[in-house]
Amino acid sequence: MREKILTYIERNSRVDLKDLAIMLGTDEAAVANEIADMEKEGVICGYHTLIDWDKTSSEKVTALIEVKVTPQRGLGFDKIAERIYNYPEVDCVYLISGGFDFMVMIEGKTMRGVAQFVSEKLSTQESVLSTATHFILKKYKDHGSVMVNPSKDERMLVTP
């Protein structure tokens, strides 16, 4: 039942417990108890709202920053990741495979602000060897939700 609950609420955390219980073929109390247990255990880490900031008057810039580091002896990547994720500008930090070690996602008000964060706070850490910053220019799909209106088929119908 746990996996099914997680699958449903990952896509829609606002699903009504009664509806979720019906979909799972169980009672509402069992679903509520299972969710409460998963929250206590840290399986469910939080609930978020997906917002298309392009449709608001708010100015936000999102950047993905690849970071190459030298791991600290005996501590590995965890201590470096902790220093990075403690900055309030940082939304996500992932250990990744490939040419870089971390993928860091941050939000700022301007591209200049993001660049300043990278040059003044991130790049200056002693274990950081290099960074590559990529600005998100447009979101097409985020967390499973399509962020653009589907295009209409504007072809004319031709009949014999």
Automatic annotation (TrEMBL):
InterPro entries in the cross-refs: Dimeric_a/b-barrel (IPR011008), Tscrpt_reg_AsnC-like (IPR019888), Tscrpt_reg_AsnC/Lrp_C (IPR019887), WH-like_DNA-bd_sf (IPR036388), WH_DNA-bd_sf (IPR036390)
Top-level lineage group: Bacteria
Residues of the Transcription regulator AsnC/Lrp ligand binding domain: 65-138
Gene Ontology BP, a term: response to amino acid
GO CC annotation: cytosol
SMART domains per the UniProt record, alphabetical: HTH_ASNC
PANTHER family: LEUCINE-RESPONSIVE REGULATORY PROTEIN, TRANSCRIPTIONAL REGULATOR AZLB
Name used for this protein in its record: Lrp/AsnC family transcriptional regulator
Source organism: Hominiventricola filiformis
